[in-house]
Design a protein that fits this description.
The chain folds into two domains: 141 residues, HUPs (Rossmann fold); 122 residues, Rossmann fold (3-Layer(aba) Sandwich), CATH 3.40.50. Helix content is 41%, strand content 22%. The chain has ten helices and ten strands. α3 crosses α4 and α8 crosses α10.
Length: 279
């Protein structure tokens, strides 16, 4: 298995060149086709408009969204016109409420989605919606890049967070092409339950599966010493000098994550290394 179809969703010019360069670097690594979907997003809200105003305002907003998508697409084409890889560019104009449909459709038919960190800086609500749509509506694994740049790390040391959940297992399977290329994969289990199915050998069955795929594995079972699991994982990844963290995404509902926070959201807000998500 390898990633042969990689999709990038672009909704703004923030980190645009860095994201293009990073995505192309990954596509070369797997000899993959890379598709750029440039989104023009209409954020117009009709609440409070006077009679007759919405039609004019909507048309103006749609024109601006269309121009934005076309501008992003032209920029990508100029950057890639002499690139030594297979690529394509598509555009779409959508409202905030329509993002999930187009992103979910395209993500469903690709092997991997590459996106920037959805929080902080110049990010807006569309970035979070795109990330969640790729995971929930498209069912695709997502590689989050906190600092898009010219070259991605080699991903030679990977930390894989394991908690026996369906999401963690899905992330492991989806990340196998990267895990097989790594020098070492550290399976970390934080505060395993004393009465769980794996109580006598936390992470043992998972490691056995990975070894059969020729993945070099070691296991770390650590006590929870910080209030948030995300802080434990970030600190452990730093201690391991890891260049990628693999984790199952959104084991709690999106609403709960949005209101109360959660491991996935906290990690995406604060991570300094790429994060591979799947569910």
């Amino acid at each position: 298995m390898a990633y042969k179809s990689i999709c990038i969703f672009l909704a703004s010019s923030a980190d645009l060149d860095g994201l293009i360069a990073s995505a192309c670097s990954l596509a070369r690594r797997f000899d993959a086709h890379i598709e750029f979907c440039c989104l023009g997003i209409d954020t117009t809200q009709s609440v409070g408009f006077y009679a007759g105003a919405p039609a004019m305002i909507y048309q103006d907003a749609l024109d601006k969204a269309s121009e934005s998508a076309a501008g992003l697409a032209e920029h990508v084409k100029q950057r890639l016109k002499s690139a030594d890889l297979r690529w394509s560019v598509d555009t779409a104009v959508v409202t905030l409420g329509g993002i999930s449909s187009i992103v979910g459709l395209k993500a469903r038919f690709c092997d991997l989605v590459v996106l920037p960190r959805p929080y902080g800086g110049e990010r807006g609500p569309q970035d979070e919606i795109i990330t969640e749509a790729a995971l929930f509506d498209g069912g695709a694994p997502v590689l989050i890049l906190p600092d898009p740049g010219a070259e991605l790390p080699d991903f030679s040391k990977i930390v894989l967070a394991w908690n026996q959940s369906d999401e963690a297992l899905a992330a492991t399977r989806a990340a196998l092409p990267l895990l097989k290329m790594a020098d070492t994969v550290n399976v970390v289990v934080v505060d395993p339950p004393s009465h769980g199915l794996e109580r006598s050998d936390p992470g043992g069955l998972l490691s056995q599966m990975l070894v059969r795929h020729q993945v070099a594995v070691d296991i770390s079972v650590i006590a929870r010493t910080l209030p948030r699991i995300s802080d434990m994982l970030r600190r452990h990844a730093q201690d391991q000098a890891a260049d990628l963290l693999v984790i199952g995404a959104y084991s709690h509902s999106r609403l709960r994550q949005a209101i109360l926070g959660g491991t996935t959201r906290n990690l995406l807000e604060e991570t300094s290394i790429p994060v591979f998500l799947a569910r």
